[in-house]
Structure formats: C-alpha cells, structure tokens
Amino acid sequence: MHIVLMGKMASWCHEELLKRMEVSHEFTLIRDPRRLDDFAGALATAEVIVGWPLTQAVIERCPKLRLIQASGAGVDGMNLDLVPAGVRVANTFHHEVAIAEYVIMAMLILARRAAEYDARLRAGKWDGSCIWGETPVLHELSGQTLLLIGLGHIARETAERARAFGMRIIGASRNPARSDPYDRVIPFAGWESALSEADWVVPCCPLTPETTGLIGAAQIARMKSTAHLINMTRGKVLDELPVFEALRDRRIAGAAIDVWYRYPADPEETCLPSSLPFHELPNVLLSPHNSAWTMRTIMGRVGDIAENLNRLARGEDLRNVLR
Q: 0.85 cut: is pTM over it?
C-alpha cells in the first residue's frame, strides 16, 4: 500500500508509524505541501493520504485513493461532499486533556494577573502585595461561572478540571439531556441566554458556517464587564474586529487566544496573528496555536493513524470515520 505523509507533522511521524505497522508499506513524505508538482508521480499511485492540508487540489491528483486520514480532529477546509465515492475520511483526537489544561492555565493566569505581577516585580515594584495591606483586587476561580459552548470531549475534560476548582459550570449542547459534570445544560440554540451569568466564556465547538462569527458585538454586549473569553477552537469563531474593540476598550476584562486569523507560510516567517494589534493589548494572553501540542497528543494520534492503516490493509472497519 502506498501512503503519502502530507505536511511536517505527518512526515515527522514516519519513524513512529513504521514501528507500529504490521506489514511493510511504501511511504512518500511531502514535507512542504506547496511542492505538489514535484510529487505528481507519487500522488498518482497513492492509496492513502495522511496529514494536512487535505485540499481538493491534492485529492484530485490521487485517482487510486482509498483513505484520507487527517492527522488531527479538524477537517475544515475540505468539502466532504466533493470527496470521491468510495474514499473514506477519518480523523483522530487525543487533544482533549492538553486543551483542557490550557483552559485552566489561562483562567488562572488571567484571574490572578500573573504576567502583570511578574513584570512589576522584575522592575522591583511590589504593587498589589499583601505586605502593604492594600485592598485585594484578585479573585479566585472558586465560585465563578464557566460557560462551555458545545459539549464534546474537550468541554467534558475542561469541566471536570474546573469542578476541582469549585467552579459552577454551564454547558450548551445540542443534546441538553446531559448533566454530570455540568451544573446546568441548556440547548445550544439558547447559549446566549447564559452570557450574563458567565465569568468565563469558552467556545468548544468546531468551525462551521453556523459557528463562524459565533461571538461578536451582540454577544459581547450581553457579557459582564468582568468576564473573559478563551478561544482554542478556531479563530473565526470569534468575530475579529468586535472582539478586538471590546478587549481594547475593556468592555470585557480580557481573553486568552490560541487560534488566529493569520498564520505564517513557513517557520522562518515573522507573522503577527491578526491584522489588528491584539499583541499590544495587556489584557490578552496570546499563544501560537499550541494548546494541544503535547507529546501525549501526538503519540496518541500516531497510534490511531497506524491502527487505521493496519485495519485498511486487513480489510477491517476503520476508527473515527467521518464518511
């Protein structure tokens, strides 16, 4: 079976995949997906593509394709309706724990204003210290309300950790019958009704036409001025301009953002994550789309991918099939 590993992450997994394969296969590594013309012959005989990007242009070059295996959970950017009949599409997860830890970390950093106090003390300033007996300005997570929009695996892992901090958890789900570990579950269509209660608003939903711009000016207007946003799903779930303006003008207290509107084309490129100066806002915690990027996540995904390749070779049902 001829397998194409598309992109740097999938190519990096080559050695780990080899350890898990039950029979030998031919592998082609395309580390730079912009160089498809250099691999026209390999793509013409490929039976499996593993990795990203999985564009229509790539698929059309692979007439023998049997399986498209995403190297992560998301397949946004690929129209499943245009995938040829008989070609299966599968994804993989294992990022839930890493992202849940990121959410908890971000809430603690923002709630306790850790970066601000670290910078002050590095300059020898003790503002906010208990030694002066000043009125405290910090708040604990305990007793605060967390709103999770979409109740998949990430939301559940986040809720379980937030409960350990004594938080009250509201979930919005298309299956509102769910309960534990949530204090209250409301229909997804009514998630905005809980905004006025929430101290922390965390979308956990995939990017779809319905969720593009899910949180914009109208939704921010319903939030507390002391509330925070955390986005680790897809950048476009937050409407870029109104979210920036709300953070700049302190209509909400702050945000942690891990997923963005602009990305570099290669590792050497310097690229700010938005055309708007989010990086100048002191109330925003920025990270470079790495909330899930842990060894545990990647090795779990390698195991899933190898399992599907072995199952395909054996003619068995695949895991995590999207179509």
A: yes
